[in-house]
Specification:
Mean pLDDT of chain B: 89
CATH class of chain A: Mainly Alpha
Number of helices of chain B: 9
Mean pLDDT of chain A: 90
Largest sheet of chain A: none
Distance between the termini of chain A: 40 Å
CATH superfamily of the largest domain in chain B: P-loop containing nucleotide triphosphate hydrolases
Strand order of the largest sheet of chain B: 5-6-7-3-8-9
Oligomer: heterodimer
Helix content of chain A: over 70%
């Protein structure tokens, strides 16, 4: 009873309301994005880009600007760079991601070392602080998520075909390059707005985990979408409440819940053979 | 009526010449078997026609955009892909489709093609859990669901057992004869495809021969190229 009254009391706080609102939108957009990235074997790109966002957030804090303003264009540039390295320089995609990712962390660490005064701020970008996000950050998160969701709905069938058979998508007249670029940008935006919520080190798990968990049980593409979004929403909402109740870091709690859900469905699939 | 015209087509990769000065035309209703040894450039030719590989020189002209394609099974990778046969077949309707939403007519087309190919029993099965023959039937359904003018098939029977292979070849023949679909079929087995194809395009980085099967069997140039025994072997299997 005490727990329920604590939860009921918590939803009256404005910071919890903002966290739930932005968390819900981010959960839907990142899980939808994650489905296509996982099936196209590109989910590691989000991991690489989240490391880039750490470096760009550090740079923004060093020069005294909003991390959103600096991170957004630089992370988009990094995603285009990864795409170009893979397609033009003929570097394996995991190696290209590794190059950009490690370089970004090195740059980030050097910047943090130079501007030693903002260590506390950078900690919130590294590991997230959803309970401390501003109204502008909430609005940006909702806007970015809505754009992502709308784009995925519009190009849903094209993305499905690209994920299963890229060659067939090309001969079907689908502009694969344009969609690749568009969704690289969308992915960058989701990562940048998401780092304040779960942190640069953990945002990629919000993209990857729900897709991989739903893959354990989905028997059609439609069911994968339903499972993936539900798992993501469940982990984000329960994660926000649990972190409030147990006074734990929100981003890490959400990721841990995602990990637990993956383990449960992985084991259930091994026992009951859903697929 | 001319449907495809290929002029002076060459494909190079780094410094290697994969295809050199390829010339041929395809007329409506043709059934062409593209044959040749391993590494002769058959798949490269098909992928270049479909603009999946960039050409180095030459010209390719299509008089239609309605093309169906069935690739080698090996290029379809993910056995874990969370999609059932129905969803995969329906994606074949996206060819040059303006509206990105499937209508009820589209869903009826899917059911009709599933019935035609006799694959009702697998329509809700995951694509990655099917046998080689079942996957090829599903992908054939995807290739023909948009009612293409030209059907391009790249070694489609590699994963099939003899019964499925016969069904496959007979079905393609029917499409060619009854619906006047143009067929381009890649194979390395002249004997097998010679039973069905009207023309043979023998490729070995260059076009060695292009003409009817009968011309192929009676060509003295081909006798010189293959030797008497091999040519006789191909043509005997045909008969």
């Amino acid at each position: 009873m005490e727990l329920i009254s604590l939860l009921l009391k918590s939803v009256q706080y404005e910071f919890i309301q903002k966290a739930l609102l932005s968390g819900t939108f981010l959960a839907i957009s990142s899980s939808l994005l994650g489905i296509f990235l996982a099936l196209q074997r590109k989910s590691l790109i989000s991991d690489g880009l989240s490391h880039v966002s750490f470096a760009t957030a550090a740079l923004a804090l060093l020069i005294g600007l909003s991390p959103l303003i600096i991170s957004l264009p630089l992370v988009i540039l990094a995603s285009i760079l990864i795409n170009k390295l893979v397609s033009h320089a003929h570097i394996y995609s995991d190696s290209a991601i590794g190059l950009v990712s490690s370089l970004s962390i090195a740059v980030g660490v050097l910047i943090v070392n130079v501007g030693s005064g903002f260590n506390v701020d950078i900690y919130s970008y590294l590991f997230g602080s959803i309970l401390a996000i501003s109204p502008i950050e909430t609005a940006l998160c909702i806007a970015a998520s809505l754009i992502t969701i709308v784009l995925i709905i519009i190009f849903f069938n094209d993305l499905f075909l690209i994920s299963y058979d890229e060659d067939y998508a090309r001969i079907s007249g689908i502009n694969v390059k344009m969609l690749d670029l568009t969704f690289s940008i969308v992915q960058s935006v989701v990562i940048v707005v998401g780092i304040k919520i779960v942190g640069a080190m953990l945002i990629s798990s919000l993209i990857i985990f729900p897709a991989i968990t739903s893959l354990q049980i989905a028997r059609s593409f439609k069911s994968m979408i339903v499972f993936s979004v539900s798992i993501s929403l469940l982990s984000v909402i329960i994660g926000i409440f649990s972190s409030f109740v147990f006074n734990a870091p929100t981003g890490a709690t959400i990721v841990l819940l995602n990990g637990i859900l993956f383990l449960i469905f992985f084991i259930l699939n091994k026992i009951f053979k859903f697929k | 009526m001319k449907q495809i015209e290929v002029r002076n087509l060459s494909v190079k990769y780094q410094n290697a010449i994969i295809l050199n000065n390829i010339n041929f035309t395809v007329d409506k209703g043709d059934y062409i078997a593209v044959v040749g040894p391993n590494g002769s450039g058959k798949t490269t030719l098909i992928k270049t026609l479909l603009a999946l590989i960039e050409k180095s020189e030459g010209k390719i002209e299509f008089s239609t955009k309605k093309i169906g394609y069935l690739q080698q099974k090996i290029s379809i990778a993910d056995s874990n892909f969370p999609s059932n046969v129905r969803e995969i077949i329906r994606s074949g309707l996206l060819i040059n489709k303006k509206s990105k939403i499937y209508s009820s007519i589209d869903n009826e087309k899917v059911d009709s093609i599933i019935e035609k190919l006799g694959i009702e029993d697998i329509k809700y099965k995951l694509i990655g859990k099917l046998s080689g023959g079942q996957i090829q039937k599903a992908l054939l359904a995807r290739a023909i669901i948009s009612d293409p003018d030209i059907l391009i098939l790249d070694e489609p029977t590699t994963a099939l057992d003899p019964n499925s292979r016969d069904f496959f070849y007979n079905y393609i023949k029917e499409l060619n004869e009854k619906e006047n679909k143009t067929i381009i079929l890649v194979s390395h087995d002249i004997g097998a495809v010679g039973k069905f194809a009207k023309k043979i395009l023998y490729l070995d980085r260059v076009v060695i021969f292009y003409g009817t099967f009968s011309e192929f069997c009676h060509s003295s140039d081909m006798t010189k190229y293959f030797g008497n025994i091999s040519q006789h072997f191909f043509c005997q299997r045909h008969n």
